[in-house]
């Protein structure tokens, strides 16, 4: 009998047979509240009627038109639509299928454009699982061990993870920037440094928002030393944080922006945006792949962007995020095992700690399992897998937030009972 590889063992026992909005129906006949959204992918909810209609129509018209061979209307429309939301000057786009591929595109472009070898990455960053992206990932050994040699030219520098350092944000920011200056002085001199890549909110690394001072400090150093600032918005983009892009919270301007996940509501589509001048440094043939900008995925992305705008989903993410956060903080206030509640918009998490304040993955796992019993699907993250995160679809409403909070409160009580 064939079976899935053990690496594909699911985080929950649920067999999802159908999805609608923020719910999925299990084969067991139960309806679950899905606060995982396909790991932040189904931005408009499961099977939003407009996304379904756009994809269905495209399937019957043109499934695939390879983009180095022919242009197709969904791609042309998607480029126009993204033009309405991208930061000024990032007017050239390139598409791939997954976050990892887009990260690699950004890396290749940075090396091609600067002629420099190194990429600086932040402690706790996650950028994907292909070998180059895994080499740039430091959010857990599970993502990078056992298949060395990893790609060379990756240098790690701190992220202002205030809670874990036991500092305030200002101190953590000052530390991270001083260490970066030290790295540039000692390990990766500017002439060897092509780029720094950072997530506006650490995702897999534990849902830690960057600070404005940190991102502005990166921008300033990139300008001073002639390297590029790559923002990995794979998880934080398309309204997830209550702004269209995560970096909108911090007023920082990227040289290369990486997007994926929420862009096409579940169809595989990712991409990078940069200035035309920068993008022209990548020579034809050095980027891309057969399936990039697939016509059905592009049609779904156009519908997604329309829904996000017309249903005010960015504002909804901000409002529902505030409501969810308030509830999470209430639960944390009476739960010593929850050391920190953090995140932005609808990208929120609770960090589980021992009495000594050390990461507590066992309790986090118990709570996550108890949540499934309560009908709530959640995921873990953080270097120790000790952080429980919530990333509901951006269409989530007050009733679903409150339903989720009731389940969360019960799951935390059950999961911390004997700890
Ligand atoms: N970058 C970030 C910030 C991510 O969160 C992820 C996925 N969790 C990736 C890159 C990789 O994306 P994918 O799994 O689609 O390759």
* Tally of structural domains: 2
Name the CATH superfamily assignment of the largest domain. Type I PLP-dependent aspartate aminotransferase-like (Major domain)
Shape: globular
Strand content: 15-25%
Q: The biggest beta sheet, please?
A: 7 strands, mixed
The helical percent reads 25-40%
Which hetero ligands occur in this complex?
4'-deoxy-4'-aminopyridoxal-5'-phosphate
Give the low-confidence spans: none
Counting helices, strands and paired strands, the structural category is alpha/beta
Radius of gyration: 21 Å
CATH topology description of the largest domain: Aspartate Aminotransferase, domain 2
- Count of helical stretches: 13
Strand order of the largest sheet: 4-12-11-10-7-5-6
CATH architecture of the largest domain: 3-Layer(aba) Sandwich
| Mean pLDDT over all positions | 96
Our measurement of the CA-to-CA distance between the termini, rounded to an integer number of angstroms, reads: 40 Å
What's the CATH class label of the largest domain?
Answer: Alpha Beta
Q: Can you count the beta strands?
A: 17
Characteristic key phrases:
Aspartate Aminotransferase, domain 2, 2 domains, Aspartate Aminotransferase, domain 1, 13 helices, 7-stranded mixed beta sheet, 17% strand, 37% helix, alpha/beta, 419 residues
């Amino acid at each position: 009998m064939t079976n899935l590889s053990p690496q594909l063992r699911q985080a929950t026992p649920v067999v999802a047979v159908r999805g609608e909005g923020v719910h999925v129906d299990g084969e067991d006949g139960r309806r679950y509240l899905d606060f995982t959204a396909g790991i932040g992918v189904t931005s408009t909810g499961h099977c939003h009627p407009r996304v379904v209609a756009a994809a269905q129509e495209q399937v019957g018209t043109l499934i695939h038109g390879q983009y180095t061979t022919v242009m197709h209307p969904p791609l042309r429309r998607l480029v126009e639509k993204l033009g309405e939301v991208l930061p000024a000057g990032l007017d050239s786009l390139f598409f791939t299928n997954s976050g990892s591929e887009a990260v690699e595109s950004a890396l290749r472009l940075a090396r091609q454009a600067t002629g420099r070898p190194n990429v600086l990455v932040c402690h706790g960053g996650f950028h994907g699982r292909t070998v180059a992206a895994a080499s740039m990932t430091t959010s857990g050994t599970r993502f990078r061990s056992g298949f060395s040699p990893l790609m060379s030219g990756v240098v790690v520098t701190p992220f202002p993870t205030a809670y874990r350092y036991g500092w305030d944000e200002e101190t953590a920011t000052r530390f991270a920037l001083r260490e970066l200056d030290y790295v540039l002085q000692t390990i990766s001199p500017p002439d060897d440094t092509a780029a720094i890549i950072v997530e506006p909110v650490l995702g897999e690394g534990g849902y830690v928002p960057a600070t404005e001072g940190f991102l502005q400090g990166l921008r300033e150093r990139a300008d001073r030393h002639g390297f590029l600032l790559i923002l990995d918005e794979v998880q934080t983009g398309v309204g997830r944080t209550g702004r269209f892009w995560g970096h909108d919270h911090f007023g920082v301007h990227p040289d290369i922006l990486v997007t994926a996940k929420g862009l096409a509501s579940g169809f595989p589509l990712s991409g990078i945006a940069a200035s035309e001048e920068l993008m022209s440094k990548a020579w034809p043939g050095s980027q891309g792949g057969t399936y990039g900008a697939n016509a059905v995925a592009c049609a779904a992305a156009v519908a997604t962007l329309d829904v996000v705008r017309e249903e005010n989903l960015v504002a909804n993410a901000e409002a529902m995020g505030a409501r969810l956060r308030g509830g999470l903080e209430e639960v944390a206030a009476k739960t010593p095992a929850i050391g920190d509640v953090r995140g932005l918009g609808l990208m929120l998490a609770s960090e589980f700690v021992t009495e000594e304040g050390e990461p507590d993955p066992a309790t986090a796992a118990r709570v996550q399992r108890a949540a499934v019993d309560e009908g709530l699907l959640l995921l873990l993250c953080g270097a120790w897998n000790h952080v429980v995160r919530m990333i509901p679809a951006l269409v989530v409403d007050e009733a679903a937030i409150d339903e989720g909070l009731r389940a969360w409160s019960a799951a935390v009580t059950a999961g911390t009972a004997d700890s």
